Amino acid sequence: MEFSPVSIYQRVSVDAALYVLRDINRNMTVTQNHITTGMRVEKASDNAVYWSIATTARTDNKAVSAIQDALGMAAATMGTAYTGVQSVIDVVSEIKAKLVAATEDGIDKNKINEEIKQLQEQLRSVSESATFNSDNWVVLTNDATPTQPRQIPASFIRNADGTISIGMLSYHIDNTPVGATTSKDARYLIDDRATGSGEYGVLTSAYFATELGAAQNYVLMTSKNGTTTGQVVISVTSSTTQGQIGQMISVVDAALTQLTTVGSAFGALEKRINLQNDFATKLHDNITAGIGRLVDADMEEESSRLRALQTQQQLGLQSLNIANATYDTVRQLFQNF
């Protein structure tokens, strides 16, 4: 009698169990990676569209962060400039009070003048000290152009066509004069340029005196490097007349009015910088949140999925053990043939 060959190597149930277990292990690896990295889209192969959007948004967010830093520096510079102007207003007010006191009969004008000189020295000290990160917005030197606006990076803009641009905050410390220069063009505290006569500094401009028709070109102080011929620094002596003191008081009062204008301008710009900085902070946070919604893993969901896959893995191992046991039983039946 002849027996036809019989194959016992048909392991359909074992192969099926292995296939299911491999699929479970693969899903577990993906889920564990999501939990470990915190991201469900880590590379372009995970989701090309989301990865591209998130990558572009990340680069934009770095630019927004740089804008925040620039605004922070600008706010500090503006705050320093405003503080300088406010301090100068206080000192000039003191000089005005001293001049008023000098009109009293029997007052020692020479002693009054000593006090005025000390206050004038304080004016320069305060003005030159109003510097942040080597940037002084209240003292005009040879390196600056009085009619050129100061600009501060304020926003990062990605246009619809993909191009980018930087929005700027511009502050015209001095508007370009129309016709002759006037006292209104004095938007700095001090103008120390060698090419001028101090006309762009409130404390160094003689235009307050000329516009008031004063007998002399009174100034609170002279420019260090400019042409100061004909200018007279405000001071009193025993021979100073009441009329002269009255003219000095008028010049100082006009300077105080212009100082208030300068201080208001700095204060308004500082406020705008702070508002823009608040917006940049919220924009940065929103972009970060948007990136997270695109690529971040939901940790609760991933944790639940991992627990489910671990349960499936245990069941898959049990199924494989059962399939292997069944196969061994069949193999033993045929081992004697």
UniProtKB/TrEMBL annotation:
Subcellular localization is given as: Secreted; Bacterial flagellum
Q: Which residue numbers delimit the Flagellin N-terminal domain?
A: 19-137
InterPro entries from the UniProt entry: Flagellin (IPR001492), Flagellin_C (IPR046358), Flagellin_N (IPR001029)
Molecular function terms from GO = structural molecule activity
Q: What keywords appear on the UniProt entry? A: Bacterial flagellum, Secreted
Q: Which Pfam families match?
A: Flagellin_C (PF00700), Flagellin_N (PF00669)
Segments crossing the lipid bilayer? none
KW Protease (keyword) present: no
User: What are the GO cellular component annotations?
Assistant: bacterial-type flagellum; extracellular region
* Major subcellular site: secreted
Domain Flagellin C-terminal, first and last residues per copy: 249-332
* Keyword Lyase included in the entry's annotation: no
By sequence similarity, the record places it as follows:
Belongs to the bacterial flagellin family.
Q: What does this protein do?
A: Flagellin is the subunit protein which polymerizes to form the filaments of bacterial flagella.
Could you tell me what this protein is called?
Flagellin
What is the species listed in this Swiss-Prot or TrEMBL entry?
Rhizobium johnstonii (strain DSM 114642 / LMG 32736 / 3841) (Rhizobium leguminosarum bv. viciae)
In the UniProt record, the gene name given for this protein reads flaH
